[in-house]
Amino acid sequence: MKKNYFNLLCWILLIIPALFVSCENEEDDDPLKGRFTITFENIELSSQGYWNGSDLTGKKVKEYYYGSLVTNYYNEFHCGELIFHNLFTQEWSSWNGFVCSSLTDTVTSGSSNVYSVYAESGATLSKNFMVASNNAVMNFMDGREKQVHSLRLNNTTYSYLAISKGDDGDFNQCTKFSDGDYFSVTFTGYDAKGNITNDCTFYLADFREGKSYICDEWTMFDISSLGIVNKIIITFDSSDKNEYGILTPTYVCIDNLVYSN
Prior knowledge:
Blueprint: H1 2-9, E1 19-23, E2 25-27, E3 35-38, E4 50-51, E5 59-65, E6 68-79, E7 82-89, E8 94-101, E9 129-133, E10 136-140, E11 146-154, H2 157-165, E12 167-168, E13 173-174, E14 182-190, E15 196-206, E16 213-214, E17 219-222, E18 228-229, E19 231-238, E20 241-242, E21 245-246, E22 251-260
Parallel strand pairs: 1-6
Antiparallel strand pairs: 2-3, 3-22, 4-8, 5-6, 6-7, 7-8, 7-10, 8-9, 9-22, 10-19, 11-17, 11-18, 11-22, 12-13, 14-15, 14-19, 15-16, 20-21
């Protein structure tokens, strides 16, 4: 139900002003080409090791959903020229969009460990990275359009262990993957007028055609085919689903996003 709710609200994230956390971008190895890399290292995190919007510093909006009044807090990270959106719903103690994290617990299964990457650090031994949920939205500020090039991604520990061992948690009854199963993340680009430029898909787990692959390390993914974009939306697909949707935990860790002017 919460995922459907966010589908209705994700577009609102782009137009409602919010408090934000600022971070810097760094020039890539080839500054002559005007390339920049978003690293998230300048975001200060609490002793918890992550920020998910639960501090209620975002723009407070009371909204009705199926007759129930909920309190949403709209927030965002400004990183270079990119904005990463976050929505925290107070009554449900839940979030959607992006969370910044530094957690690397690769042992603990279940939704209590949703903020950990299945690795010993962020990409290229960094500290911070982003965790994105289904329908997470990032966009270049002020309607700007930029050429995107690549990013590094990896599974969350929650997703990795659900795929490799199964998960009988409170939210999803996930099945251990076997022959024919898959879990993928798709990046869809949009221009400043809202037209789709292209999309590209990465398989976070692939058990089709005799494979038994689960992404367990930071992997560079070429997203240059999206072209010149103003906005990117992240979605997921999985073979493990029922009439209500995907059962695999729909999260992905992202770091080192490269774009150019």
